[in-house]
Amino acid sequence: MRKKSEVSLRRRALQYLARREYSRAELRGKLLPHAQPDADFEQVQPVDLDALLDDLTARGWLSDVRAATQLVHAKRSRFGLQRITHELHQRGISEELISAALLELKDGELEAARSVWQKKFGTAPRDEKEKAKQVRFLQSRGFAMDAIFKVLRCDDSED
Questions:
Q1: Is residue 54 part of a domain?
Q2: Cβ atoms 134, 72 nearer than 8 A
Q3: How far is CA 47 from CA 11, 37, 57, 107, 111, in A?
Q4: How would you write the pLDDT of the chain (159 residues) with one tens digit per residue?
């Protein structure tokens, strides 16, 4: 029989996972404040959060691979490689999974940068000030400088 705190922690974890995919580190961070011993209930031993996360992973309900894939799929049309990599790091995804997830993005970064630029500006910069503004915008979206210059047609080489 499970303790009351473990059941509520499990329920809380499943509620989070029902909304979207979480990485193990992300879910651990969300559940950690609720796994601490509660002074009001005189809990003898704290809930073993890592055992709960191991169980969710073993059942296939928690997956870093799915969390990384979901994030990449959701962000790839609006953001560049650098921004997506940063967000994957923030979510606690391992370097191996980040490398694997970003392999498919490298080929499409130029097209994504063009699409984002077209939606925001649509016309080539008329002067250096406007060019700098467009470059900063695309940089803030996480696109690499070579892709930005190709979009702005500042690079003499073709795609």
A1: yes
A2: no
A3: 13, 8, 17, 45, 48
A4: 455 555 688 999 999 999 999 999 999 999 998 887 655 554 444 568 899 999 999 999 999 999 999 999 999 999 999 999 999 999 999 999 999 888 878 888 999 999 999 999 988 899 999 999 999 999 999 999 999 999 998 644 444
Look up residue 153 and give its two tokens: 């047609």
Can you give the pTM of this predicted structure? 0.79
Task: Tell whether 29 is covered by a domain.
Answer: yes
What secondary structure does DSSP assign to 97-134, as a single string? Answer: HHHHHHHHHHHHHHHHHHHHHHHHT-S--SSHHHHHHH
Residues sharing a CB contact under 8 Å with residue 52, sequence separation 6 or more, in sequence order: 6, 9, 10, 13, 31
Residue 37: give the domain boundaries. 1-62
Total domains in the fold of the chain = 1
Please give the sequence-ordered ranges of beta strands (E in DSSP) within 7-84, or none if there are none.
none
Structural domain contains residue 128: no
Residue 120 domain-assigned (yes or no): no
31 near 9, Cβ under 8 Å? yes
